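step: validate -> pass
step: tokenize input -> pass
step: predict -> running
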Amino acid sequence: MAGPQKEFEVHPYVQFMMDKYSPYKNWIKSEGVPIVGGEFVQDVRSEPLGYWQRKDCKGAICTFSDQMVADGYICEIDPGKSSRPQRQLYEEIITVAAGAEPPRCGMTARRSALSNGSAAAPSRFH
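step: predict -> pass
step: emit ->
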């Protein structure tokens, strides 16, 4: 099976300008956590993490194929702790890779506790 195909080639100068002056790329670098690139993440539990001051936990940012649209992040929250609250204007889907926690981030109390393999979409209006 063939790997992913690029839709079109980007001129080297355009790529240079995008890499050097992209506000998004500059912002994710300024977050100070490892940036995981590529097409996918094999196992989120084995990726290197750094302290993420904005979220007050360990984490990494995942940039997939330079999409800058559907990127993600890995967030490791210690047992009994929570990440720093934040406001956002994007939808988020949370998947639990290991452990279990009660609902957080605006999820309703009707939802049962999250555990391995669980997924949840918190409210966008929190």
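step: describe -> Strands lie at 35-36, 50-52, 57-62, 72-76, 94-95, 119-120.
step: cleanup -> pass
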